[in-house]
Amino acid sequence: MPANFRPTVIAATVALLFPAAPLFAETLPPGTLTVTADAMDGQMDKELKARGNVVAVRDDQKVTSDWLDYYVDKGELVQAGDRVQMTQPGSDIVSRRLDYSMQSRQGEADDATFAFNQGGGVLRGKSEKLRILGDKHYELGRTTANTCDPGDESWYLKATTIDADYRSNIGVARNARLYLGGVPVLYTPWIDFPLDGARKSGLLFPTLSTGSNGLDITLPYYWNIAPNYDATLFPRYIAKRGLMLGGEFRYLQPGYTGTLYTEQIEDKETDTHRYLWKGEHQQQLASNWSWGYGGSYVSDNDYFDDFSDRLAQVSSDNLERQAWTSYNLGWGSVFLRAQRYQTLIDDARGDLIPYARLPQLQLNGGQALPAGFRWQLLSEATRFSHPDLQEGNRLMVYPQLAWRADASWGFVEPKVGVNYRRYDLDAWRYASDPTRQVERSKTVTTPTFSVDSGLYFERDSEFGGHAHTQTLEPRLYYVNIPYRDQSALPNFDSATTDFDWTQLFTENRYSGWDRINEANQLTAAVTSRYIDNESGLERLRVGVGQRFYFEKDRVTLPGEAERSRDNVSDILATVGGDLTRDWRLDGAIQYNPEDSRTEKYHVGVYYKPAAGKTVSMRYRYDRDEQVTINGQTFEYPTRQVELAAQWPITRQLYGVGRVEYSLAAKQAFDTLAGFEYNAGCWTFRMVGQRYLTDIDEFKTGVMFQLELKDLSSTGSVADKLRLAIPGYSKTNE
């Protein structure tokens, strides 16, 4: 007789006589079975029969039923009916009949309804024959299942079997059909999926879209190679182009990480082999030494136009490739890299192709010194290569010394520096005069001096009926850089920067090191802020500033006109802030006081009262903006409106949209519209888009995404909407 049989019968008998007896089970040793029922009989060493409102409990297992037979010599077998419910932690099974061993935790349930919540996700449904194969392991025969709330069958899997093994958190469905709204939409003879939402090898649901290339279907396969390695393979059928094969490999180790991505296609429309390669690697060789590489390369200039939507296209006509290494010195760092670009412009002019840096060596650093002083060093030595333009070497060394004094009421920071540049150029003849050769060696030494200073004032105030702190922050920034003739220097990497609020407080109006402007100038600006005392939010920020020139700047880039005004710059003003928790504002304006006209401005208003509710409007004006499209540069006035929104139409249906409309050209450059339907258990998104790819050339497409709760998603529409609509949020998060 099993050691625990006698306490079992005693507990059952006491429970029959005294309704409060189940409390007695708490004092029994592990493995003891307690039974309560309206009536019980049986032989103590063989079997027990219970009838009417039966409740049987053994450790964390509980069975309730109309009747129950218990057989000790059959491994503590329980046979129960007509209405049976068996519960364990994370498991609830209701069935017509149960045959189950409470000792081995194995058995079968007929016509069962189940709900499993053991791996972080919920799996529920019905099964004609549910086999319990041990602790946390189930086989569901002739079953329908989903991850929805009880009673929600908006989607479900119908399979011959589903093997749900919560020990490995893997589910395997065989001969499975996916039903949406009661309609079968997908069949697979075999599919496995994670029961806890973790990564798991197997087929993913397909991605579907349609557009200028016709029907576009991708069927991804995810391969979870190891906890720190995985890969995704995705055959993609494009009706007008053919079959594309793609893949992504990712790796992660304590000392390094990286990705490798490729797409390959025999394009039947162009009758050529086309491809994309993209990779990135970062590795820590020591605590202060690292290296890496990264970049992209495509087979031809039109690759992204033909195979990507606008939001996924690269933002530049130049694809970067580089390899680098960096060493931390404590007080600074050494950085070495080789860098070049692939230019995606047909017959591109030389000035549209960036120089390659083969190589570039940088030594940068700085340290605080006693009494508020600080030194800083910027330096680099670079070899510049180009297929069409002047090539050569450039050495730049820029030591600086600054002193800063801070107080609660303000600050002052004077700074001095000396910028030294040396050029060693390759042989080169001027196109306009082939007999004239450039100077092979050039040096330029430019001293710099600046003083940055500001004051802080604040007072108690009210804004929108709430207590705020209002600040007043005047600032003066003086720069003096003597003139150095740089007209004979090549332009390897310099360009004019936008005249904006940040540039007001920058000593050089050029990026790069080939041009350093002449300066004897003073920036005067003032900023005022309203800061909420309770939340700390900046409710409103207003700033206005202007630069005053005491001498003319004679430094220019090739083709750049000299500054037309000698004494003052345009006036800049900015405004922004979180007006309320729902409303946000930002804007800026550049005003020409000499000609009494506005050069450019933008203003944006954003409203987001809750997740899934956002509306934004932005207007941008530029009197003469230069735009380069496919290597051609145009100058025209910009008057552009951008509208974007995500808003509920009904409780479950959301509309999404975005439009960029040019008032000058009287046409929309980019239009996106669609909807999201959140059924709770699944979410469907469909978005159509029409956008400009070239001069008077548009591309259209329709994208789809289906997300099944706790199971899987297809497509990347939500990611694109995040880029297109400010404040967008997924409705099922």
Which features characterize this protein?
733 residues; mainly beta; lipopolysaccharide transport protein A fold; six-stranded antiparallel β-barrel; disordered N terminus
Q: What is the average of the pLDDT values?
A: 88
- Report the sheet-strand fraction: over 45%
Shape: elongated
Helix content: under 10%
What is the radius of gyration computed over CA atoms, rounded to a whole number of angstroms?
A: 36 Å
Function: Together with LptE, is involved in the assembly of lipopolysaccharide (LPS) at the surface of the outer membrane.
Pfam families: LptD, LptD_2
Family: Belongs to the LptD family.
Signal peptide: 1-25
Draw up the topology in text.
Elements: H1 5-17, E1 33-36, E2 39-43, E3 47-58, E4 61-71, E5 77-81, E6 84-88, E7 91-95, E8 97-101, E9 106-116, E10 123-134, E11 137-146, E12 155-165, E13 170-180, E14 183-194, E15 202-203, E16 207-211, E17 214-218, E18 221-226, E19 229-238, E20 242-252, E21 256-267, E22 272-286, E23 289-298, H2 303-307, E24 318-328, E25 332-343, E26 356-368, E27 373-385, E28 392-403, E29 405-407, E30 410-425, E31 429-430, E32 433-437, E33 441-455, E34 457-463, E35 466-481, E36 495-496, E37 510-511, E38 519-532, E39 538-549, E40 571-578, E41 583-592, E42 597-610, E43 613-629, E44 632-648, E45 653-662, E46 667-678, E47 682-694, E48 697-708, E49 712-713, H3 717-724
Antiparallel strand pairs: 1-3, 2-3, 3-4, 4-5, 4-6, 5-8, 6-7, 7-9, 8-9, 9-10, 10-11, 11-12, 12-13, 13-14, 15-18, 16-17, 16-48, 17-19, 18-19, 19-20, 20-21, 21-22, 22-23, 23-24, 24-25, 25-26, 26-27, 27-28, 28-30, 29-30, 30-33, 31-32, 33-35, 34-35, 35-38, 36-37, 38-39, 39-40, 40-41, 41-42, ...
